[in-house]
What we know:
The protein is an alpha+beta fold and 251 residues long. The protein is 39% helix and 23% strand. It contains eight helices and twelve strands. The chain has helices at residues 32-41, 97-102, 125-131, 133-159, 162-179, 192-199, 203-215, 231-238; strands at residues 7-10, 42-48, 53-55, 63-69, 72-77, 83-89, 94-95, 108-111, 115-121, 187-188, 219-222, 225-228. It has a five-stranded antiparallel β-sheet with strand order 1-2-9-4-7. Strand 5 (72-77) and strand 6 form a beta hairpin. It is globular and about 55 Å long.
Amino acid sequence: xxxxxxxxxxxxxxxxxxxxxxxxxxxxxxxxxxxxxxxxxxxxxxxxxxxxxxxxxxxxxxxxxxxxxxxxxxxxxxxxxxxxxxxxxxxxxxxxxxxxxxxxxxxxxxxxxxxxxxxxxxxxxxxxxxxxxxxxxxxxxxxxxxxxxxxxxxxxxxxxxxxxxxxxxxxxxxxxxxxxxxxxxxxxxxxxxxxxxxxxxxxxxxxxxxxxxxxxxxxxxxxxxxxxxxxxxxxxxxxxxxxxxxxxxxx
Length: 251
């Protein structure tokens, strides 16, 4: 792992008992015995550079990861190189779980920014299921939440107009990032190519759609990405009610 470009394995920088995510209102706290198990389950941390590949479709991985800081995206490639971004990964999200149940990973993961990942040995996951039903339920909840987000993304690609798709995506990313302290202000550090690859639009069509949102004063485009000016306005265009979730698990 340490020899792969853009990836550096390290020992624990953040003990689970002092995890910086635990203080956020978005996450529920562990029970004492759960925290003790998670502290043993975690074997270290992985630092990933921006633009590096974290997981590769078709590969097997001996590890599971939870994002501690930074963000990235899950995607699939067609044989001709066309890319579909499936979802965005932010602090508190678990990645690699699919490989535990299906063997080979069915998607890849790339870092959109420098990321720090908590590393867990995949082989110890079954001890979690056997001895910690509360944590097993949490993993089921995490998988169900991912399914719900993919349902909404599929609705966008299938039925929303281009303007509604873009409005939903930017409101969705911003809302998720805000709950985990990822965007200190209102900016979403994303390129128009990422938006195009998520919405299934050409880059030219995406640029024209983004321009419409700018003209309506919903967003402003900066060098570092998109600034959300009117979140409620974006939600209204998309017909989206928001995340609608209480405290969520953290593994």
